[in-house]
Amino acid sequence: MSRNRRAIKTNGQEIIAIQQTDTIPVDDLRELHEFRPDLVDRAFKAYEEKTNESKLKLKLFFTMFIVSIIAILSIIGVGVYLIINGYENPALILFGTTCAFIVAIFVKNKN
Questions:
Q1: Dist. CA 82–CA 86, nearest whole Å
Q2: I need a surface site. Which of 23, 82, 83, 91 has the fewest CB within 10 A?
Q3: Which segments of the chain are extended strands (E)?
Q4: Which residue, among 5, 2, 3, 25, has the nearest Cα to 15 in the 3D structure?
């Protein structure tokens, strides 16, 4: 995390504002690159790795979300098929356990 300082003059008084950001200003990177190019290259490499890691996590989340939706829809389809063919008790057990798992997942993710 870097700090950016900015001086503002109002009514003859100088106010220094310090702002913390996750990015380094371009001018500072240029100065650092002239002095130690290996540090700038390492910083860019670390940033790329962090970005790739977050993209992978996001992709995994959406993949698991789609798989979960497909599983829930297929369970509902099996339950409806069981009800149509006269197997109400197994269908109710299937629906009940599915609802219980969904509620448990929401409760777990809330905490």
A1: 6
A2: 23
A3: 2-10, 13-21
A4: 5
